[in-house]
Amino acid sequence: MKISFHGAARSVTGSRHLVQAGGTRVLLDCGLFQGRRQEAERQNRNLGFDPKSVDAVLLSHAHIDHSGALPALAKYGFSGKVHGTNATADLTEMMLADSAHIQESDCRYVNKKERRRGKDCRRPFYDSDDARDIVRRFVSTRYGDVLSVRPRLKASFHDAGHILGSAAVRLMATAGGSTKTILFTGDLGRKQMPILRDPEPPTPCDVLIIESTYGDRVHDETVEAAKAKAQALVAHAVAHRSKIIVPAFAVGRTQDIVMWIKDLVKEGRIDPLPIYIDSPMALRATEIFRRHPECYDEETYRALTSEGDPFIARYIHYVGSVQESQNLNSMKGPCVIIAASGMCEGGRVVHHLKHAIQDEANVIAIVGFQAEHTLGRKLVEGWETVPIFGVLTPRRAQVVRFNGLSAHADRNDLLAYVRAITPAPDKIFVVHGEEKQSFSLAAAIRSEHPGIEVTVPEPDSTHEI
Questions:
Q1: Neighbouring-strand partners of residue 159
Q2: First-to-last CA distance in the chain?
Q3: Element (H or E) spanning 117, and its range?
Q4: What are the backbone dihedrals phi and psi of residue 208, each rounded to the nearest 5 degrees, phi first?
Q5: Phi/psi of residue 334, nearest 5 degrees
Q6: 115 Cβ partners below 8 Å, 6+ apart?
Q7: Checking phi first, is residue 356 left (phi over 0); if not, alpha (psi -120 to 50) or beta?
Q8: Per-residue tens of pLDDT for the chain, all 465 residues
Q9: Which of 48, 60, 131, 358 could form a disulfide with 96 if both were Cys (CB 3.0 to 4.6 A apart)?
């Protein structure tokens, strides 16, 4: 048996891990690379394998760096099924349609300019037809159910607590008379986070593929400290009639923030102020959240049954049209504007940053991971001038980072996850992290478990298991 790592190897995005067992080839995730535009496009157009040779896909969750290249499989000959949880199937359908639309729009814009220069037209990586095609191949399942994916290959999905429907994938493969169990964490969440249940404990396995987004650090900000910071920011916005711009992923993080703000109001720590959710995708994602209360933790489920819709309040406004979004730029504060994308690489948040970033009274609240080379990463690193729509723009607004809201397990969580696997796995592959994070986590695992073979795989490398 073999595993080939064609993405999220010594990097965070583009999760694609190909398992070969006998004559069967199963892909764990099929995500898009994100970051520098030209480099990401080159990586995305080279999947690293022949889609026709893949028998099935097991999808950990709907985030685009895990699901976003799925339509390319359909485009280039994949004829199998895509397996994931019920909520993941619903979210992925929405996200792939949006991704295809963005690519088609980008190509139209670029080609309009290229034609003037007499250059050949670009084609999108995939289009809306490809996205619809792959969605028709989805087979959704419940947590814990064991699926027969192929004659000698079974799989099950276990709650990872990262976003709605997210799962650690357990794969049991038989080849050459032996059976191996592979556990792929996908993205691991954290305990005691809003809305979702805590991650399930790991199941026994021979091989563990573990994420390492925060493999070199501990989330040092408690929920209480984060609440106090938010309370101070709201007081600042009220005093200065300013805006708090929150770049947030439409799926998961936006819903968490809504619940978090409602808690602060309920606790009397802040007075209600206008909250604008300026993301059509977040609106659609919130509708999907409403359809899947089976993923909620007890507190959220109780609130749903006793208080009604957990995502609605009189001070929360969902923005639909482009005109409504544009009106926010000329509106006076105090207010909070939550908009995608979470790494500030596209979407309506970039327009809000363009209009708000030069006012020192405004605040940009960073609430999630920011990949290398993204605008969000530049803001976190304190760049005084940042590129927005290709124009270098002075940054005068405050940038405040919240570590307590991360939906990713930290170093201690990841090490505890490994310790909980009994008996210990024979091999561990550390993925989904920048090199520093992955190698740091790998070293810590080796130190605690000298008998385990721990590898940080190189991109496009293949390993016997």
A1: 167
A2: 6
A3: none
A4: -115, 130
A5: -85, 145
A6: 121
A7: alpha
A8: 999 999 999 999 999 999 999 899 999 999 999 877 778 888 998 999 999 999 999 999 999 999 999 999 999 999 999 999 999 999 999 999 999 998 888 788 778 776 777 666 778 899 999 999 999 999 999 999 999 999 999 999 999 999 999 999 999 999 888 999 999 999 999 998 889 999 999 999 999 999 999 999 999 888 788 889 999 999 999 999 999 999 998 998 899 899 889 999 999 999 999 999 999 999 999 999 999 999 999 988 888 888 778 889 999 999 989 999 999 999 999 999 999 999 998 889 999 999 999 999 999 999 988 988 899 999 999 999 999 988 999 999 999 999 888 899 999 999 999 999 999 999 999 999 999 999 999 999 999 999 999 999 999 999 999
A9: 131
- CA Rg, the chain, in Å? 22
Nearest Cα neighbor of 84 from 64, 66, 57, 65 is 57
Contacts 24+ apart (CB under 8 A), 306-315: 310/195, 310/259, 310/262, 311/255, 311/258, 311/259, 311/286, 313/262, 313/265, 313/272, 313/275, 314/272, 315/265, 315/272, 315/273, 315/274, 315/275
Torsions phi, psi for 323 (to 5 deg):
-65, -45
Query: What string of DSSP letters covers 134-195?
Result: HHTTEEEE-TT--EEEETTEEEEEEE-SSSTT-EEEEEEEEETTEEEEEEE--S---TT-SS
DSSP per-residue codes, 124-136:
-SS-HHHHHHHHT
All structural domains of the chain: 2-217+407-464 (3.60.15.10), 223-401 (3.40.50.10890)
What does residue 309 show for φ and ψ, rounded to 5 degrees?
Answer: -55, 120
CB 336 within 8 A of CB 247: no
Give the pair of three-digit tokens for residue 69: 């290249």
* Cis bond before residue 387 (omega within 30° of 0): no
Angstrom distance (rounded) from CA 325 to CA 127:
26
Q: For residue 61, what are its two tokens?
A: 């969750």
Residue type, 219: H
